[in-house]
Amino acid sequence: MTFSHDIAIIGAGPVGGALACALAAQGKTVLLVDRAALPPMEHPDFDGRAYAIAAGCKRLLDMAGLWEALPFAPCPIEKIDVTDGKVGRPASPLQLHFNAGDVGEGAFGWIIEARSLRIAINQRLRATPGVTLRAPAAAQVSRDAHGVRVTVGEEVFTAGLVVAADGRGSQLRGQAGIAVTRLNYGQSAVVCAIAHEKPHEGVALEHFLPGGPFAQLPMTGTPAHPHLSAIVFTDRHETVKRLAAMDDSRFLPEVRKRLGEHLGEVRLVGRRWTYPLSAMYAARYYDTRLALIGDAAHGVHPIAGQGLNLGLLDAVALVELLAGAADCGTPELLAAYQAARRPANMLMLVATDALDRLFSTNNPLLRLARDAGLAAVERMPRLKRRFMLTAMGR
Q: pTM of the full predicted structure?
């Protein structure tokens, strides 16, 4: 027996899962397939991982019914401090300070626990009649000008469009012969969470260091840890390998050296995670009856915390384009999707790549130039406002 759907989505991560919920809320019928079982992704215990969701991306979570389903309250980012320095030394006095109130907004975005978003997505997927979920399962996909055929075990599904939300190693992208360009940074990211003595007041810190940027992101506290922040920083592979081998008692001073003293005493909460960093971009975002979104289409350096946000904005564009479409997979619709998203995503890739190369260096001339640049932007209200709106995903 063959089952008919409007859209098939391969990959039930945050972007694919949110897209499925949003399309179903719009009245579309959606097949969602993932190789992994979804409940284990919920990570019921706090593990220190979090997402920075820009204000402009909250719209998708609202459309999908996910925001109201988050079990743990998001923490608003009301201010962002951008500083430059060296490990273990005070930051340069030439700094940049962003305040969301200066552009008439309450927050640049929110920090959401990774497990919170996963729990909300799983709950909505189970409760939404328009979604057919198959996970864990493998999908065999064939496409032609007339439609899409997805085989999952003994079941056969048809759709007008298949969306590749299956990550940087996307099989659908590979099967379509879409070329990918990759950039290697020679860096890895360290992710963890800290409890601290003083409140963060909704302020995020982006501290540029020679080995790579260090970010402290405000999180909603718990009864056990009333003041919490997520920590994300990058450094050279060899440095991160050394840090990963340390026990907590040796690792925590490394965090303090990068963070400074403004939050008082700190201690680690949950696990530590490390990830190698690279950037990539697909030569095109579509093929016959196929659209790429999220990490299947692009990946950027985490220096601005925009990776997930770009994927969510991809999903917003697709939802809007598909809203009144009788045929979800026409070449004209897919070309319009690429035109809406690829230039913006490429601009962010170029910007984050340039920022990392400019700031991840100890060259004294470059250090002087970038500190002067931070101070100059601080005194230019229009340019500063543009940076703030970009941080909000607008």
A: 0.91
How many angstroms separate the CA atoms of 206 and 220, rounded? Answer: 19
CATH architecture of residue range(s) 75-112+185-278+359-391: 2-Layer Sandwich (3.30)
287 is written with which tokens? 């093929």
Ranges of each domain in the chain: 2-44+115-182+279-357, 75-112+185-278+359-391
Work out whether the CA dihedral 276, 282, 287, 293 comes out positive or negative: positive
| Cβ atoms of residues 169 and 10 within 8 Å | no
Distances (CA, A) of 280 to 179, 300, 311: 10, 7, 13
| Packed helices 381-391 and 364-378: angle between N→C axes, nearest 10 degrees | 100
d(CA 160, CA 145): 9
Here the tokens at position 39 are: 């409940």
- 2-44+115-182+279-357 folds as FAD/NAD(P)-binding domain (3.50.50)
Q: Is the pLDDT of residue 378 over 70?
A: no
What's the confidence (pLDDT) of residue 45?
Answer: 67
Strand, helix or coil for residue 229: strand
